[in-house]
Each structure stands twice: as structure tokens, then as C-alpha cells.
């Protein structure tokens, strides 16, 4: 057979929009966001009528914090198709931008149209967080100032793991602000680490019965079981947390710290890398647990850098040996 005839049997590979989309998803999953955007643009150019592609591209923009660019894409999709997922994605982006009224409008619209949709659980959780924010805004100024003083005092002791000093302050806080449930979670944690483990677990189980989706209960119960060497039980709650990606940086940090404290360093490190450092500079736990997670994920030089930065900000850290050298 001649060389010409052999060549004529070769079927040329012509990539289509599905190919570009798959490559974009692979790049996104590998956190190669620039490459993911390029592939997704090719998919969109190849098939401009497919709403899935701009929606996925908006998710990539959301991941890198380009919320306005993400919303522009979603708004364009809704001009030509009632692609319901867009409403949830818009709500999520508006929440990140702090535009909670817009976020509430779109998340409600999503739940009206798709009460059992793919994002239904996330949408309900987002709506709950927005409504909690609204409830907090209803406090009068005097109450708000007093609550803030207690919060800052408890925060100071909890960050330094001064459990015994935190307990009496939290007890007062619970009496004065019974609706502020975070105080009860902090109280359970302080009780546990001062030796009152059974009471701490009982409290958290009670809180979880009141609200089966309480993230703070998931975090505390996972931490308690891990501390008791009950890894299987800890993982039940850790797996619930893996599906949660909150809006507020403080809650994101608390979840990242929880993963680090229960030895889930890979997940913790990934979460820490996504945090807004500028918003968390006053959190000692950010530096302590971020450095520990980085070290255990094979980034010792980064771990040392984070630890040293923490020591410059918090002399109490400088008094201690690097955790992985202990």
C-alpha cells in the first residue's frame, strides 16, 4: 500500500464545543483558572446558544473573586433563556459583594422555580445566612455595643485558647443575649477543653436537635470526637462540612481551622488558600493553623513564613516552638 493511501485513512480530529467544555472543567478542577477560562471561551464561541457554558464560566469567575464579571455573564444568559441555575449563582455572587437585598431576591426566585433543584440545599443555607444578618441588624445600638464588647472579650480568650478565662464571660453573655446562639457553641468548646467533656457533647447534641443544619454544631462535634480518638464519628460531621462554602470570611476561617484541628490538612490547606488574608489579620488562629496545615501538606517554607508573620503580630506565638517541631 502506498504512503498516500495510508494517509487517506487517517480521520482528522476536529474538536467540538463538548471537547472544549470538558477541557475547561479539567483545568478548573486542577485550579488552573486562566486555562479554564480560555477553554470555556472556546466552548462558548463554538456553541453560543448553550447556556451551560457561560454559567460554568461564571463559576470560574466567582472562584477567582471576579463577581461582577460572573454576574454579567449570568445576566446575558437570562436575556435569552430562563436557565434557573443562574438565579442561585447570581444570589451567591451578590452575597459575596455584600449586596444582601439583591442576593435575597435572587435566592428566593431560585427556590420558587426549583424548590428541589441541584442548588436547593445551598440556596436554603444562603437564605438562612442572609436572614441571620438581617436579624442582627435589628438590635438597637446600645444592645449592639454591649454585645460587641462581650464578643471581642470572648474572641480574645478563645483565640489564645484561654478556655477558663472565656467561660465566665460567655456565661454572662448567654444570660444577657439568649438569642445569640454562637455563645453556646463557644461555651461548649470551652467546657470541653477544660475537662467537662460529657457536658460539652450533651450541649452540642442539644443544639443540633434544635437546628439539624447548624454548622457550628458540626464543627464542634467533629472536633470533640477527634479529640476523643473517635475518628469515624468525627468524619461523619467533617463530611458534612466539606459540602459547605460560606460567604463570611470569619465562618470560612472557622471551618478551615476545624479541618486543621481534626487532621484533615489537605482540605484545611485548600480552604486557607482561598481566604481573604486582609480581613483575617486580627485572627491569631489564622496564622497558627494555616502554618500547621501548610507544613503537613508538604510546604514547609510557606509554613515557616506564615508562622513568622503570625509571631510578628502576636508575641504569644513567638513564645512557643513551631508546632511541628514540638
| DSSP helix fraction | over 70%
- Radius of gyration, rounded? 24 Å
CATH topology of the largest domain: Serine Threonine Protein Phosphatase 5, Tetratricopeptide repeat
Tally the beta strands. Answer: 0
Secondary-structure topology with pairs:
Elements: H1 3-8, H2 17-29, H3 33-46, H4 52-63, H5 67-80, H6 85-96, H7 100-113, H8 120-137, H9 141-159, H10 163-176, H11 182-192, H12 197-210, H13 215-227, H14 231-242, H15 249-261, H16 265-273, H17 284-296, H18 300-313, H19 315-318
Helix pairs in contact: 2-3, 3-4, 4-5, 4-6, 5-6, 6-7, 7-8, 9-10, 10-11, 11-12, 11-13, 12-13, 13-14, 13-15, 15-16, 15-17, 16-17, 17-18
Give your account of this protein's structure:
The chain is built from 19 helices and no strands. It has 326 residues and is an all-alpha fold. It has three domains: 17-137, Serine Threonine Protein Phosphatase 5, Tetratricopeptide repeat (Alpha Horseshoe), CATH 1.25.40.10; 143-244, Alpha Horseshoe (Serine Threonine Protein Phosphatase 5, Tetratricopeptide repeat); 267-326, no CATH class. α4 (52-63) packs parallel to α6, α12 runs antiparallel to α13 and α13 (215-227) packs parallel to α15 (249-261). The termini are far apart.
